[in-house]
Write a structure and sequence with these properties.
The structure is a single chain. Helices cover 34% and strands 20% of the residues. The chain is built from eight helices and ten strands. The protein is globular, with a radius of gyration of 23 Å.
């Protein structure tokens, strides 16, 4: 009688998820709390809807639709309305949980890093009246979490991400459904009726054309979102996606299609071409995000993700401060 098969290694969901959630919350609150002063600020500075006064119009910087015609007529000098941040912030998350996000060669894999990013966004945007909703894109389709308030709702979302089905849980003969990031972005636009913050967490590998100058499959949908909302695109990568080490003969697996290919990594020319193609691909993603009008935050599994978020938020605050009005309120 043959010996029983050895149990598979523990997955993220098996490693005491409640304890991991508490560690995540402590990490965020200790290292990131205090970056955003006040409960009404999001991860990105942006306009609100509550009138706070008027100031002189600056050609080339201000939108004509914000003109304060009453003050302009009274002073004979063009003025625009000033607005305060909305008292309640609605944040929508689109989290890519497709098979390509299960890859990782560092302390975290890409799926785990995406959960950490969601935790950071959730805890930093939490506040009285602020709501958080999510769409999770997996190989089994799109799962929606309605926008709700409170820490309990955020923890239930993180728990669902920790327990989301992984590729290892799928039967070997089961074909994987191709995730459609463009369709998921369109679904977010349908539910995000009120202006707010939209955060997309993905590796953005879906729909990339071979022509690096061509439009990506998800770019038009992201551009439509950015026209109405503040959009933060969190790009998640792993170092082995950027450089191929010299480890001899390896078998590469495409997690989205299941295709396999043997590669001899001892060839220096092959490694050089791999690194060049990977760099061109990431530059292609960066250009598409920039054209779409989304703010871009790059996280890597081999770096301190909290430090990357700190740098990003500080940079956004400096941009907001430099764009602040320098004149008095009329």
């Amino acid at each position: 009688m043959s010996a029983p098969a050895a149990p598979a290694g523990p997955t993220l969901a098996d490693l005491a998820p409640e304890r991991r959630l508490r560690r995540l919350e402590l990490t965020v609150t200790r290292r990131l709390d205090g970056l955003l002063h006040g409960q009404l600020r999001g991860l990105l500075p942006g306009p609100g809807s509550e009138i706070a006064g008027s100031r002189e119009y600056r050609p080339g910087e201000d939108e004509v639709r914000r003109m304060d015609w009453a003050v302009t007529a009274r002073t004979t000098v063009p003025h625009v309305r000033e607005v305060d941040a909305d008292r309640e912030l609605t944040t929508w998350l689109l989290v890519d949980a497709s098979p390509s996000m299960e890859y990782g060669t560092a302390a975290l894999d890409k799926r785990e890093l995406s959960v950490a990013a969601v935790a950071a966004v959730g805890f930093l945007t939490a506040g009285t009246g602020n709501r958080l909703g999510a769409q999770v894109l997996g190989s089994d389709g799109l799962r929606r979490f309605p926008a709700r308030c409170g820490r309990t709702h955020l923890l239930s979302l993180l728990r669902a991400l920790l327990h989301a089905p992984r590729m290892d849980d799928t039967a070997p003969d089961t074909p994987l459904a191709g995730p459609d990031l463009a369709a998921a972005l369109a679904a977010v636009q349908r539910v995000a009726v009120r202006r707010g913050l939209v955060v997309v967490v993905s590796d953005f590998l879906d729909g990339l054309p071979d022509d690096h100058d061509a439009t990506t499959g998800w770019e038009p949908a992201l551009r439509r979102l950015a026209a109405r909302h503040q959009v933060l695109a969190i790009e998640v990568t792993d170092p082995r996606e950027l450089e191929l080490p010299d480890v001899g003969l390896i078998t590469l697996l495409d997690p989205e299609t299941g295709r396999r290919r043997e590669v001899w990594t001892g060839d220096p020319e092959l490694r050089r071409r791999y690194a060049s193609a990977a760099a061109a691909q990431r530059a292609q993603v960066a250009r598409a995000l920039r054209r779409s009008g989304a703010d871009h935050l790059a996280l890597r599994t081999d770096r301190d993700w909290t430090a990357d978020i700190v740098r990003h938020v500080h940079a956004q605050r400096r941009l907001a401060a430099s764009a602040a009005p320098r004149g008095g309120v009329a």
